[in-house]
Amino acid sequence: MMGRGGIAELQLETTTVKLHLRAREDADDAASDAARTAQVALAAAAAPPEAEGIVVTAPMIGTFYRTPAPGEPTFVDVGDAVEPGQTIGIIEAMKIMNEIPVEVAGVIAEIYVANGQPVEYGQPLLRLEPHRQ
Fold first, then answer.
1. Category of 6 on φ-ψ map: left (φ > 0), alpha (ψ -120 to 50) or beta
2. Along the chain (133 residues), what's the average pLDDT of each consecutive run of 10 residues?
3. Whole-angstrom distance, CA of residue 97 vs CA of residue 68
4. Rounded Cα distance, 39 and 9, in Å
5. Torsion of CA 75, 79, 85, 91, to 10 degrees
6. C-alpha to C-alpha distances, 47 to 40, 42, 51, nearest whole angstrom
7. Global model pTM greater than 0.85
8. What integer pLDDT is reported at residue 108 of this predicted model?
């Protein structure tokens, strides 16, 4: 399939998955060039943000929910101030709803996952800019 698509090599890395595929050695130079171009594009798209702040990560595998129940407002949105212990979302694992709290006071700068999105252990959920003391 890679040969038919003109791809000699494909490498994809996320915070939880590393995938590296290489076609047979007899792939032509055009396919190799296409693979390198695709690899650079994928690496740029998968690169984590290089912003300051504290990244809150998933403490378990499950489904992340930004709301306490369907149709209710989100726990937090970008720009919201949060205090230590405040719930920023829920991860459902094995039919158990686990509240995810923040550990420091700050302001929500970015949210990386959507409501209902599956998450892996250690996956970034959001970025928090801590309050300066």
1. left
2. 66 74 61 56 50 89 94 94 95 94 94 95 94 69
3. 9
4. 8
5. 40
6. 11, 8, 12
7. no
8. 95
* Beta pairing class for 9-13 and 18-22: antiparallel
Tokens describing residue 70: 């369907």
Which amino acid appears at position 15 of this protein?
T
3-state DSSP call for residue 35? helix
Q: What is the rounded CA–CA span in Å between residue 84 and residue 9?
A: 46
Both tokens of 46, joined, read: 């998968």
Question: The tokens 């599956």 sit on which residue?
Answer: 118
Looking at 23-130, which runs of residues are DSSP E strands?
54-57, 62-65, 81-82, 87-93, 96-101, 106-111, 117-119, 124-130
